[in-house]
Amino acid sequence: MYGFRKPFTVATYEGSEFNGIGFKTMIVSIQVIGYMISKFIGIKVISEMPANRRAVALLGLIGVAELGLAVFGILPRPYNAVGLFVNGLALGMVFGLVLGFLEGRRLTEALVAGLCASFILADGVTKSVGKWVLDQGVPEDWMPFVSGLIFLVPLVISVAVLAKVPPPDEDDIAARSARHEMTSQERWALFQKYGLGLSMVVAIFLLVTIIRSVRADFAVELWNGLGTKPDAQIFTRSEMIVALGITLVNGLAVLIRNNRLAFFVSLGICGLGLLVITMTLFTQQQGAMDPFTFMVLIGFGLYLPYVAVHTTVFERLLAMTRERGNLGYLMYVADAIGYLGYVGVMFAKDLVSTTDSFLQFFLMFCWFTVGVSVVCLGIAWRYFQVLETRSAVTPAVEGAT
């Protein structure tokens, strides 16, 4: 999926500006707007999607996404931006469909950690592919379409294999609870019941999504601001290290059988990520860190809470409470809010005109994220701790241990 979504971000589109807005900022924002709208639509579609329709839906969405990239290549600037809107609108529901195959299992954390590692690594690999395609002389506007073609056959094979995955067995259901398609009433009832705690988790996810997305979509500008001219391999090298670390930390949660303990450990992992970000920012501002180490550590710190929410926080919340629902619903609520925030930041970002000032903008927002997220994490921890003390989830914990 990332092969159809991310390669275009490696191009700089220098010299293209419309109504005072840089063309790259415009197309990144337009794709993200489509992606964001797709996340809001996905709250309903993903939570209600029958298992037997997932594979067909995946292939259909990818086909529409590649068609959007063809439009991007055919139309002149800035009208070709509509192609990236269509691309984002199609791709926004792909992750939720894949997640549906993996949730509600004793190995869910390990499987989803692997999935998250794949998209962390894919962020770098697909940019490397995009840079390679540009180096072959393919024009910037056609590079995304050509890059997508490279990933088309592997994607079809992967979806065919994924369609063969058996559903959770009885032991999985006993350990993690059965997962169900949800009606609108059930979705609203679940969020109302745990509103404050979920809102704090979503707020953390919102801020981390913004940093993670800025780092991903404007990696070239950040590397340049740090004084390093990136080559085709640097994106893959940096993200491979991040992916390995994130997979190890979050995947190990599968070893914790007690759902309550695993839930609070996942909140602790979020706190660890915030600590890593803080230490990285402080060290970098002291001039004691090279650009490569900075990009790796800031990526590791922000992906710790980002992936913990994907792998464990919502998964174990459903497991320990035994509430009727599914992981796709909770993830798409968080994703929709996260990308809504990112769209706002994209427009604010264009007020920063130089590479160096953009780096400072990024660093400042990182500090803001850490400060607000620490407060939200404390509230969420206390909320769910009190909830457990009041025995609201005690029977579920005993049944899932």
UniProtKB/TrEMBL annotation:
| Alphabetical keyword list | Membrane, Transmembrane, Transmembrane helix
Q: What is this protein called?
A: MFS transporter
Its domain of life? Bacteria
User: A Pfam family matched by this chain, by name?
Assistant: DUF5690
Where are the bilayer-spanning segments? 20-43, 55-75, 81-102, 109-130, 142-163, 194-214, 234-254, 261-282, 294-314, 326-347, 359-381
